[in-house]
Design brief:
It comes from Kineobactrum salinum. The protein is mainly β. It is built from 6 helices and 37 strands.
Length: 645
């Protein structure tokens, strides 16, 4: 795959002008928490990480987490079904990434909803301080779902003085449908000085239905209306001690034009609606006792879903997933050891009509973990060791070890590498002997399997990070081996529409190997530039065939300019060719490129106007190939206003 822009920018980075050093380092050290559940600067973190800052979120018309991270190194997208998309880290399925908000688990909506992407939009952009993404298994800290990586949304803190912002955005794509509106507000400040503070946010988003280019009677991208809100009250009873009470609620309504599966003469058009509501109440304590620090808390999350098809006479289908979690961890130091010990209790309950006997399933997980960050006798070398045990009442105990070495070779160069294991527990539906539901538009029936074992991964990586003056560069190589991947397998009436029966089984094994490179530089005259490139070799270990819907090559590049109240940027994302099966034959999906242009004017210290065009060339995936399982937004012109106070 040819990438002239990437080559051009790499050449620019190595030119004398780009590498010119100054006595003043224009970069601030990025601080992260997700790699070790401990605050540290990014170059010391025991993991390959990407950080999306608040400034980067404001630069683009970001709607959700997918928009925020999609141009990061190591990230690709895949179709989740129903016109939705999922995030793949290093070629791993979307369900292999654990989503956190301030370190708390987000309900895995895929446990309730097939083809789900609802967890991507629970926190609106104006409430986010930064997003931290760990590429690689993190089950040694976080348990199930973290076998591919972790995305942790860090929200904005309660502040000592009152501040806030209001954001308005409107955008229209080329062609019919797909218009978007967004209105959001955020406020934070003290209620009682030095004692009690609050932060709160509200957000409303609306996206119109986009007809499919191949068949306007169907949706290319579904309509969406989302309303989210939340508040956190932060109480400080004494210095270095804080109690937070948080409340969150979101309502996400989807609508799409669909057609029943089966013979063409029997197919019927209908409207499919999904209404998903999420609520969470959370209380947490943080305290520093000089010799140790303690975090403890509890939270309850509920996810309710109601869906209906307009062609069906049956009442709407309803599901509810509730999670009750109690957790705690303590940090302390002993000589050259920085220790972290913690535990978690999690109880999940699913109420679903597809659980045909009782209508309900539940499971309890008890977890303990220990992490030791050791300063080795060799100067500037640290070793992080971790082990977590998750005891699941249905399949027993799963152990997740981790070892990671970080060597600060110099003030500018860091070498790092390590080994880790991860796992993903089967969902309550997959494990249930009473689960029965039709899939594939009614082509087959799927049943649960109580004999399922967790999906597991073993990963090793080696990387470097170089940061000096205006230039920052990182590179990582990795290999990840997956076992016991859960798939459905036919066991009776195979190939017979409406009669075929499938069951969840552990069958697949895969090997994913890759290389990641990212570099950014601050240039003279207010310019800055960045580029990243990812290579992925993903293979089914049983057939030795390339895995489907995983591009081998992907890259992004950005050129920015900022002078006084004015700023502008040009971005390009290139997604390489990938494979997909059609009628038992393998077909190649072509590569595609997306170009984006945007700018901002800081009218006053409180008012900023932004405008731009996403997908400048109006790239339409459905025209390049009908086999793409998702579509990109067409050429999209947007305007936004941000008022800070």
């Amino acid at each position: 795959m040819k990438m002239p822009l990437v080559v051009t920018m790499l050449t620019a980075f190595t030119s004398p002008l780009a590498l010119a050093q100054t006595d003043e380092d224009t970069r601030m050290e990025e601080v992260v928490v997700s790699a070790s559940a401990t605050t540290q600067v990014l170059r010391e973190a025991p993991a390959a990480m990407s950080v999306i800052t608040r400034e980067q979120l404001l630069e683009r018309p970001v709607r959700d987490v997918l928009d925020a991270v999609r141009e990061s190194v190591g990230v690709t997208l895949s179709g989740a079904g129903f016109t939705r998309r999922s995030i793949n880290i290093r070629g791993m399925d979307g369900g292999h990434t654990l989503f956190l908000v301030d370190g708390r688990r987000v309900n895995a909506s895929a446990d309730v909803i097939a083809h789900s992407d609802f967890e991507l939009g629970w926190i609106p952009p104006q409430a986010i301080a930064q997003i931290e993404m760990v590429r690689g298994p993190m089950s040694a800290l976080y348990g199930s779902e973290a076998l591919g990586g972790v995305i942790n949304v860090i929200t904005r803190p309660v502040t000592d003085t009152w501040s806030g912002n209001i954001t308005l955005l409107h955008g229209e794509p080329s062609g019919s449908g797909g218009g978007e509106r967004q209105t959001g507000a955020y406020v934070a400040g003290p209620l009682i000085e030095d004692r009690l503070g609050v932060r709160a946010y509200l957000d409303y988003q609306k996206r119109d239905n986009t007809p499919s280019a191949a068949d306007p009677a169907l949706s290319g991208t579904e309509a969406r209306r989302a309303e989210t809100g939340g508040a956190t009250f932060s109480y400080t009873p004494a210095p270095e001690h804080r109690i937070d009470l948080s409340l969150q609620r979101a309502d996400d309504l989807r609508r799409r034009d669909a057609r029943t599966a089966g013979p063409a003469h029997l197919a019927r058009d209908y409207v499919y609606r999904d209404d998903v509501r999420r609520q969470q109440i959370d209380v947490h304590y943080n305290g520093d006792f000089q010799s140790f620090a303690l975090e403890a808390g509890a939270y309850r999350s509920t996810l309710e879903r109601e869906n209906r098809g307009s062609d069906l006479l049956a009442p709407p289908s309803e599901q509810e997933l509730s999670s009750d979690i109690v957790e705690g961890r303590v940090r302390f130091e002993r000589g050259s050891h920085r220790l972290l010990a913690g535990g978690e209790y999690r109880h999940e309950t699913l109420d679903d009509g597809s659980l045909i006997t009782t209508g309900s399933e539940s499971a309890t997980v008890h977890s303990l973990y220990l992490q030791d960050n050791i300063a080795l006798p060799v100067e500037d070398v640290t070793l992080t060791l971790g082990l977590r045990a998750d005891d699941h009442e249905q399949f027993g105990t799963e152990y997740s070890p981790r070892a990671y070495l970080v060597w600060q070779v110099s003030d500018s160069l860091t070498l790092r590498g390590g080994y880790g294991e991860g796992f993903k527990a089967p969902t309550l539906k997959q494990l249930s002997p009473q689960y029965s539901a039709f899939g594939g538009g009614g082509r087959f029936e799927i049943t649960g399997n109580p004999q399922l074992q967790p999906e597991t991964s073993r990963s090793v990586e080696l990387g470097l990070l170089h940061q000096a003056g205006r230039l920052r560069t990182e590179a990582t190589i990795y290999e990840n081996r997956l076992r016991d991947l859960v798939q459905t397998e036919c066991f009776v009436n195979c190939g017979q529409f409406g009669l075929e029966r499938r069951q969840y089984v552990n069958v697949a094994e895969a090997r994913l190997r890759g290389f990641e490179f990212a570099s950014s530089v601050t240039l003279p005259l207010g310019f800055d530039a960045g580029v990243n490139y990812s290579y992925l070799d993903a293979v089914d270990r049983e057939s030795d065939e390339r895995l489907l819907e995983r591009p081998r090559h992907s890259a992004t590049a950005r050129l920015g300019w900022n002078q006084g109240p004015w700023s502008a940027h040009l971005r390009v994302q290139r997604v390489g060719s990938q494979l997909r099966t059609v009628d038992n034959a393998v077909a190649t999906l072509p590569y595609y490129s997306l170009w984006h242009l945007g700018g901002a004017w800081e009218v006053t210290t409180t008012v900023t106007l932004r405008a731009g065009i996403e997908n400048l060339t109006d790239e339409r995936l459905s025209e390049r190939s009908e086999l793409f399982t998702y579509d990109e937004r067409r050429r999209y012109a947007y305007f936004s206003a941000n008022l800070n106070f």
